[in-house]
Give the backbone structure.
Amino acid sequence: MQNEFLLVAEITKPFGVEGEVRAKVHMDNPNDILPYKCFYYMANSKEYVPIEVQNIRLYKGFAYFKFKDVFDRDMAEKLRGTLLYISRKDAKPLPDGRFYIVDIIGCAIIDDKGEILGTVTDVMQPGANDVFVIKHGKHNILMPVLPHLITKWEVDKGRIVVDGQIFREVSVFED
């Protein structure tokens, strides 16, 4: 089942005295956040609440938001740590072979012989390539996302098929 909302940023701190906040952007291209005028945040861990943007600007890899109903630093401080989402229906379509991280989490990792190797619990983005965190029993496996390792992306079926031999060579067990 696909999430209706997609994580796009996390507010890290207030900026200035007029209610602006700084946020870390969780999108491949930070510029992709600029067209959106309405974001959502989770209230009481139960419902997504819209928050309207007056202005967004980018500087040194961060997004700076000025929300319509946030007028001072005290109000901005209350937003520290808030995750910002967009509605999936408002998101621009992805090219073939690209997936939202939220859709990858929960997928089974299966080798080419059909053996279940674990379930993706997180996707790290350290730099050169993404790394899947895979829950395998009581352990975590770190698997680099490499084109020659993944043989089939079947995210719509909740699974990703990998070359078993390469998987065992490049993956790292974590305790």
